[in-house]
Amino acid sequence: MSKAQADVASLTARSSIRDYYELTKPRVVMLIVFTAIVGMLLAVPGLPPLDALLFGTIGIGFASSSAAAINQIIDARVDAQMARTQRRPLVLGNISDRQALTFAGLLCVVSMAVLWWLVNPLTAVLTFLSLIGYAVIYTVYLKPATPQNIVIGGAAGAAPPVLGWVAVTGEIHAHALLLFLIIFVWTPPHFWALEIARRDESAKVGTPMLPVTHGVPYTKLSVLLYTILLVIVTLLPWLSGMTGLIYLVSALVLGAVFLKHAIRLRAHSGDQPAMPMFVYSINYLMYLFAALLVDHYLPL
After folding, report:
1. Which helix (H) or strand (E) segment is 22 a member of?
2. How many whole angstroms separate alpha carbon 125 and alpha carbon 44?
């Protein structure tokens, strides 16, 4: 056995199911899949067809996992220089670039086949465009080029509820676009709160995130303004007749807490409120979409 073959064999031996699992950014994918499932359930008055729910979830989940893996492949050099990403499997050398790319490619192919043949072609096309939008357009072009990267690239992350809706109905509905809009507006305050806390790492690797290019006070103001806009946008499902009082009350309460975090962040001279706001923003989106489900099935 040659030295190169021995190195590959050693690397393969070190790779584990957990390494591949971590390559997919599981926490992010779970949130994406959850919002997609909510889109499926809201698309019809009762329960959606079981096959659309099952295969739609598998296809969208695999596509999201593929995009996350590609993102880690492209960002491996940067990840190695940042404390919060130094334990990723590619950085540690537990998985090679070739193994990761093969894994990501397999997930992509399987997801497209499932969505095209077992769901519907429109869902497959939209899911593929979302994958390219995040894994390529955002990661390769937007992220290193503009501090508005997360705003523009947020469209890919906001797509899952639309994908879920289309998986069940085969068409894009205005109500699905409202769900898209909520996540699209939620993304900047969610992500910039994290970037305020981690701005030194972004500056170190030369990524032009908003706190690095425009400063922390400007970013805090942007977070506050986007949070105000988010609270307004979350009222649109009720104003349009899509939802009822359960959702309205939930949106107002959750939005008030989010706004409180944003005001505290803006008023504080340091960065301490940034991470609590970031953590809450994740829970906020989960609770808000859960409220959509409760309101859908228990209307008042």
Report:
1. helix 17-23
2. 22
**What's the rounded Cα separation, in Å, for the pair 126 and 199?**
33
* pTM summary value: 0.93
Length of the chain: 300
Cβ atoms within 10 Å, residue 44? 14
Q: What is the pLDDT of residues 173-229, one digit of tens each?
A: 999 999 999 999 999 999 999 999 999 988 888 889 999 999 999 999 999 999 999
Looking up tokens 């899949």, which residue turns up? 33
In this structure, what token pair is assigned to residue 226?
């986007």
Q: What angle do CA 182, 300, 226 make, to 5 degrees?
A: 20
CA–CA separation, 95 vs 289, rounded Å?
A: 35
Contact by Cβ (8 Å): 85, 79: yes
* Dihedral (CA of 107, 165, 173, 245) sign: negative
Cα atoms in the Cβ-side hemisphere of radius 13 Å centred on 157 = 23
